[in-house]
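Before drawing any conclusions, I needed to go through one protein's amino acid sequence and its backbone structure tokens, quoted below without any editing.
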Amino acid sequence: MTVAAILKHKGRDVASVRPTATIAEVTRLLSSRRIGGVVVLDAAEQLLGILTERDIVHTLAAHGALALDMTAAQVMTRNITTATPHTTVHQAMSLMTEGRFRHLPVLDKGRLAGIVSIGDIVKARIGQQEAEVDSLKAYVAGAA
């Protein structure tokens, strides 16, 4: 199974902000959408970075309440790992586990095509394993 299959099921909607958005604005968006991260896009919709709850917590610890007036560009993670629609679930899981992050933007020909979370990946992997178990059960039952 590939990341494209996950996006086909979950959709390609991605919460995004501009680099000038304040952290206060970003936290309201995260809270209202009940999500853990947003991508930061420039005016041409090019991916500049990702801003997650973890980034915000680190910034709050370092700067206190002043962090709320900082911008997404000041706080975001700039060096981000991305996937393509052809990335397999196993590859995505490995990238996320090794990189210790929970959100993986998906780029298709350099354009943002969606985002998958570790929850999406785990759900897909469990679905794969259940299908394999069902196939094995059917095979064993048919061979008996």
Summary: The first strand starts at residue 16 and ends at 17.
